[in-house]
Amino acid sequence: xxxxxxxxxxxxxxxxxxxxxxxxxxxxxxxxxxxxxxxxxxxxxxxxxxxxxxxxxxxxxxxxxxxxxxxxxxxxxxxxxxxxxxxxxxxxxxxxxxxxxxxxxxxxxxxxxxxxxxxxxxxxxxxxxxxxxxxxxxxxxxxxxxxxxxxxxxxxxxxxxxxxxxxxxxxxxxxxxxxxxxxxxxxxxxxxxxxxx
Length: 197
Description:
Layout: H1 7-17, H2 21-32, E1 45-47, H3 49-55, H4 80-100, E2 102-104, E3 109-110, H5 122-131, H6 133-147, H7 150-154, H8 158-166, H9 175-187, H10 191-195
Antiparallel strand pairs: 1-2, 2-3
InterPro entries: Muramidase (IPR024408)
Protein name: N-acetylmuramidase family protein
Organism: Spirosoma aureum
């Protein structure tokens, strides 16, 4: 079985969320540009230094200021490769905090949300994120249902979804307008096109 998102996976997710495939595609496009894995097979991640700061009580702020600081900086990390550089360094200091402080997969669910994704522990969460894009989508569906965010997605309440999914500073990255624009694009596509990744 391949790692790429499948039409069957999309249909199951849309059915579970009681919404359309365009809505599911919208979330993927904005969160990861629709890519759950890098070309070399590694799962797409984004390490968040401000979350690492919280998860380690600021212990590394002085000694590792590039890995741990209070205020979110939307320009750091610069890209996924930079995320992995920071993540790998953070793992040498506190591996659990590093995993909790990173968003994972096509839908960029934060590691600290592992329980809301139906996982018993972080190891299970990472294993399922590394399995396939369909698996990443399955975890995201559980997360949306568990947290009640399926309504915001289904009703196209993009500002509410962005605020609750991406955090209170969502406007700095224009997540709400990006979601709205992506949905308009996908909504105009035929279903058969949406089902073919």
